[in-house]
């Protein structure tokens, strides 16, 4: 029996609106992971890895999502302007188009961008970092990523 328990590291950051995870297809089949995401109501997948998500294994399933590639080097940060461009696309439609953020392991880049979405929704940077780490204590892995959340908040004001 082939039972799929869910996408590796999948967690709701804002229930029903914003989730984070490891890369779909990393620890199980891409088809199983994409099916799981549809069951969760995810409409948009944001890939934060250097390379786009390889969707050749499941093109029909992949076509059911809006896929956004926003590359950030591992353990790194984007520019505030680039981050704002992404967040401004995502934040206004979270209720109608739930989003999955993912990098490879689903921790550093995923947690950083999730915290920036929370900042865009009105959270203070420290509260946003605390909120994402309440969901997963390993979200936001490097000091540069943690500092970026504050820098992003100041930049966009």
From TrEMBL:
MF term (GO), any: protein tyrosine phosphatase activity
Domain (Tyrosine specific protein phosphatases): residue spans on this chain: 84-147
Record SMART domains: PTPc_motif
InterPro entries tied to this protein: Prot-tyrosine_phosphatase-like, PTP, PTP_cat, Tyr_Pase_AS, Tyr_Pase_cat, Tyr_Pase_dom
PANTHER family, A to Z: TYROSINE SPECIFIC PROTEIN PHOSPHATASE AND DUAL SPECIFICITY PROTEIN PHOSPHATASE
Protein name: Dual specificity protein phosphatase
Organism: Plesiocystis pacifica SIR-1
